[in-house]
């Protein structure tokens, strides 16, 4: 796996779809894979992104990511048969961008969608400032 095709591509897509404002901050959590630790990736992370890596051998560090992947597989992957890699890629992208982040309610967020929660937090931080 090359960083350019994995971690860097994912970070660029995230920045494109959800640009950070100067006052925003983000924690980017990953495992200890080379695609997240290499100079090529670390040099583009940016000043308002704090990198966080899971502890060596600590399975609980990735619990949130593992929970997401379980949901993705249960709600999407196991329900479909993909003829091509592009079909699978487009299906996952559409699921995340048009359903998971914008329509699916999350109990951990007070039954808000991710977008509703982000808007609420953004508005609260603007009102505090």
UniProtKB/TrEMBL annotation:
GO terms for biological process: DNA integration. GO terms for molecular function: nucleic acid binding. InterPro entries: Integrase_cat-core, RNaseH-like_sf, RNaseH_sf, Transposase_IS3/IS150/IS904. Residues 1-121 form the Integrase catalytic domain. This is Integrase core domain-containing protein.
């Amino acid at each position: 796996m090359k960083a350019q095709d994995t971690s860097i591509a994912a970070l660029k897509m995230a920045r494109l779809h959800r640009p950070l404002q100067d006052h925003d901050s983000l924690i980017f959590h990953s495992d200890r894979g080379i695609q997240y630790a290499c100079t090529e990736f670390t040099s583009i992370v940016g000043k308002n992104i704090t990198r966080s890596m899971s502890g060596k051998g600590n399975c609980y560090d990735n619990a949130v990511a593992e929970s997401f992947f379980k949901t993705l597989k249960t709600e999407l992957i196991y329900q479909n048969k993909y003829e091509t890699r592009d079909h699978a890629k487009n299906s996952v992208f559409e699921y995340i961008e048009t359903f998971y982040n914008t329509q699916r309610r999350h109990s951990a967020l007070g039954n808000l969608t991710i977008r509703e929660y982000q808007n609420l937090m953004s508005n609260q931080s603007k009102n505090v400032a």
